[in-house]
Amino acid sequence: MDIDAWVWWLIIAVGLGIPLVLTAMPELGMFAVGALTASLVAALGGGIVAQVLVFVGVSVALLVVVRPIAARHRAGQTGHASGIDALKGRQAVVLERVSAAGGRIKLAGEVWSARSLDEDQVYEPGRQVDVVDIEGATAVVM
């Protein structure tokens, strides 16, 4: 039984795609796309040299272009803070006197319990303060 070259490239692509799904390694997906393009070249009548060059070229191009983007995404370096991290560094308005013992502020449209970062510092109602940290449900301000 004689199998065409394009079928072999498809088998290679599937062979690379299965571990991709199991391990979530984007590099395997890039090689699988390279194998798919080599399969297309083989189906269009390209020789083995053209097939291998296309496989290597597409795979390397994807590794150079897509891999850094995937790594940045995997590391979560989107640059957008969310949740509690998004509140740090924002300004709030004191609603009830804030000291080291406690108080209330309005932060992002919500009323939060707050305490001052410096034990000796006291903030009166109406004053703008900066949120330094969030500890549980209490904002630490200065």
Beta strand count: 5
Shape: rod-shaped
Question: What's the main sheet like?
Answer: 5 strands, mixed, barrel
Distance between the termini: 79 Å
Task: Work out the strand percent.
Answer: 15-25%
**Uncertain segments:** none
Structural class: alpha+beta
Order of helices and strands: HHHHEEEEE
Order of neighbouring strands in the sheet with most strands? 1-2-3-5-4
Number of helices: 4
Q: What does this protein look like?
A:
This protein starts with a helix and ends with a strand. Helix 1 (5-23) packs antiparallel against helix 2. The chain has a five-stranded mixed β-barrel with strand order 1-2-3-5-4. With 142 residues, it is of the alpha+beta class. The chain has helices at residues 5-23, 26-43, 48-74, 84-87; strands at residues 91-99, 102-107, 110-116, 128-135, 138-141. The longest helix has 27 residues, at 48-74.
Give a quick precis of the structure.
Helix content is 48%, strand content 24%. It is an alpha+beta fold and 142 residues long.
Give the secondary structure arrangement, pairings included.
Layout: H1 5-23, H2 26-43, H3 48-74, H4 84-87, E1 91-99, E2 102-107, E3 110-116, E4 128-135, E5 138-141
Helix pairs in contact: 1-2, 2-3
